[in-house]
Amino acid sequence: MKALFLEEVGRLVVREVETPVPGPEELLVRVEACGICGTDRHLYRGEFPAKPPVTLGHEFSGVIEAVGRDVVDFRPGMRVTGDPNIACGRCAQCQKGRVNLCLNLQAIGIHRNGGFADYVVLPQTQAHSLPETLDPLGGAFCEPLACCLHGVDLAKIAVGSSVVVIGGGVIGLLTVQLARLAGATRIVLVTRSAAKRALAIRLGATDGLDLTEGDVVARLTGADGLLPGGADVVFECAGLAETVEQAPRLTARGGTCVLLGVLPAGEKVAFEPFDLLFREVSVITSFLNPHTHRRAAALIASGAVTVAPLVSRVVDLNEAVAAISGPAAGGEIRVLVVPGHAQ
Ligand code: NAP
Ligand code: ZN
User: Fold this and answer.
1) Contact 25, 68 (CB under 8 A)
2) Residue 291 within a domain
3) 187 vs 174: CA distance, rounded Å
4) For a tag on the chain, would you pick the N or C end, based on fewer CB atoms within 10 A?
5) What is the CATH number of the domain that holds 257?
6) Does 191 contact ligand 1 (Cβ within 6 A)?
7) Which domain holds residue 100?
């Protein structure tokens, strides 16, 4: 089979390798689609540690080709999505049920071979079924949606509340849809791109706001703003120091601000504790997708969350090299890798 390897930091190669054989409790999955995420670019540039040589790709789904002898709930022909984050189950955090904080966390596509390949090996504990009727590209969105679900769970959105989402990428546009499903009645997407604002409104946002036009805090929270006094819940999904600083200022008294965006290690931002305290604004973080993958699969399978408009481009494994190593093309939301399945 063909697989795209991170050979070392800064070098991606598509190589022909033996098709892996699944272990007793593993599935061999023929990859139908695998999303290219910002993390893949960070791994390529050495900004996140990986374990090269390794096949990248952690947002994948496909059809089971073969199963190990001790696999119970899955059989060849079934469509599945993979939860890439493998917790050890033994450490103090796992014992508390906080598997995203596992001290020995291993990820498929980072520490072991992932989905930028014709086939990927998936432990049965990490697999979740998808309907055979689903668009084969849809399953690649389960992993990012599962991350957004964790953030939305932590935010505890009350029905009828107001929500601001900063950032119009996959994470922002999926969070908009979850906020709508959670019962928010005002949902404002803050992003620079007019096309993404228009898409957000199609997907359930009530308003869009440009990040770069004037003072976004005043325009949103001022007396004449879209949400005077701020939003009950704010999700930061852009991952920039500037927007992380804005997020609590866009949050209403007693509200919650959820930080999902990832800033480079070492980068600092400024908060005003006086303001946060006197308005009792909670600033919380949301990391990965503990126990949310199955619900993400259900949301995509049922059509409750729409993912087709988030696919900007489909590439094969060879084209994926440039898509990962080059700069992210402006305006693109998600590029999906569909392997060629050459034998
Ligand atoms: P993305 O596609 O890059 O989207 C980020 C959005 O932020 C872009 O669409 C862009 O919107 C906006 N943005 C980017 N650069 C900007 C700039 N210089 N100024 C203003 N706005 C800018 O990323 P994503 O996949 O949606 O992920 C969003 C963030 O979540 C990333 O930081 C990612 O690492 C993080 N993440 C976190 C988790 C978690 O578990 N917490 C999971 C997955 C991803 P416009 O260009 O339209 O303004
Ligand atoms: Zn653990």
Assistant:
1) yes
2) no
3) 12
4) C
5) 3.40.50.720
6) yes
7) 2-137+307-337
User: What is the atom index within ligand 1 of the atom nearest the CA of 191?
Assistant: 48
**Is residue 85 in a domain?**
yes
85 and 188 fall within a common domain: no
Q: Which two tokens stand for residue 204?
A: 């359930």
Question: Within a domain: residue 301?
Answer: no
- CA 86 / ligand 2 centre spacing (Å): 9
One domain, residues 280 and 226: yes
| Cα 45 to chain centroid, rounded | 19
Q: CA–CA separation, 114 vs 4, rounded Å? A: 9
Q: How far apart are CA 169 and CA 163, in angstroms?
A: 17
CATH number for position 55: 3.90.180.10
Q: Tens-of-pLDDT digits for all 343 residues of the chain?
A: 999 999 999 999 999 999 999 999 999 999 999 999 999 999 999 998 888 999 999 999 999 999 999 999 999 999 999 999 999 999 999 999 999 999 999 999 999 999 999 999 999 999 999 998 899 999 999 999 999 999 999 999 999 999 999 999 999 999 999 999 999 999 999 999 999 999 999 999 999 999 777 788 998 999 999 999 999 999 999 999 999 999 999 999 999 999 999 999 999 999 999 999 999 999 999 999 999 999 999 999 999 999 999 999 999 999 999 999 988 777 899 999 999 854 3
Residue 294 counted as domain residue = no
Residue type at position 16: E
Ligand 1 pocket, residue 261 CB under 6 Å: yes
**What does DSSP say about strands 106-107 and 251-259: parallel, antiparallel, or unpaired?**
unpaired
CB under 5 Å of ion ligand 2: residues: 87-88, 91, 94, 102
